Amino acid sequence: MPSLPFDDEDLPLFTVGQVSGMLAVQQAFLRRLDSLGVVQPSRSEGGQRRYTRREVTVVQYVVRLADEGLSIRGIRRILELEARVAELERECESLRAELRARGGS
């Protein structure tokens, strides 16, 4: 069965207004996240921000952290560190797989 466009988590489908409504946040908050590089939605031909499902999930996580009292700059740092940890975990798993392939433990 062919994949539908909205099955793609990285397809920019949602406008600022739609994301604002879904997550009950101000559009200015979303624009600030963009300006600080927390999420970087793509732009339509008309220059409007378009968010992917993955970005909406990140914004939802950011909202939860902000509700816990973290600053946007602190949240951005947490996201950077979480991405780095995920990268290191992938690297470790790759090295473990290589060791197993070579007959190591």
Please describe the structure with a list of short key phrases separated by commas or semicolons.
105 residues, Multidrug-efflux Transporter Regulator, Chain: A, Domain 2, two-stranded antiparallel sheet
Report on the structure:
With 105 residues, the chain is mostly helical. The protein has a single domain (8-101), classed as Multidrug-efflux Transporter Regulator, Chain: A, Domain 2 (Orthogonal Bundle), CATH 1.10.1660.10. Helix content is 59%, strand content 4%. It is built from four helices and two strands. The chain has helices at residues 16-23, 27-35, 53-67, 72-101, and strands spanning 42-43, 49-50. A two-stranded antiparallel ribbon has the order 1-2. A hairpin with a 5-residue loop joins strand 1 and strand 2 (49-50). 11% of the residues are buried.
Gross morphology is: extended
- The helix-and-strand class reads mainly alpha
Secondary-structure element series: HHEEHH
> How many runs of DSSP E, i.e. beta strands?
2
Instruction: Enumerate the strands of the largest sheet in spatial order, edge to edge or round the barrel.
Output: 1-2
Helicity level:
55-70%
The CATH topology is given as: Multidrug-efflux Transporter Regulator, Chain: A, Domain 2
Percentage of residues in DSSP E strands = under 5%
Largest sheet: 2 strands, antiparallel
In the residues, how many domains can be counted? 1
Sequence stretches where pLDDT stays below 50 over 5 or more residues:
none
pLDDT averaged residue by residue: 91
Radius of gyration, CA atoms, in whole angstroms? 18 Å
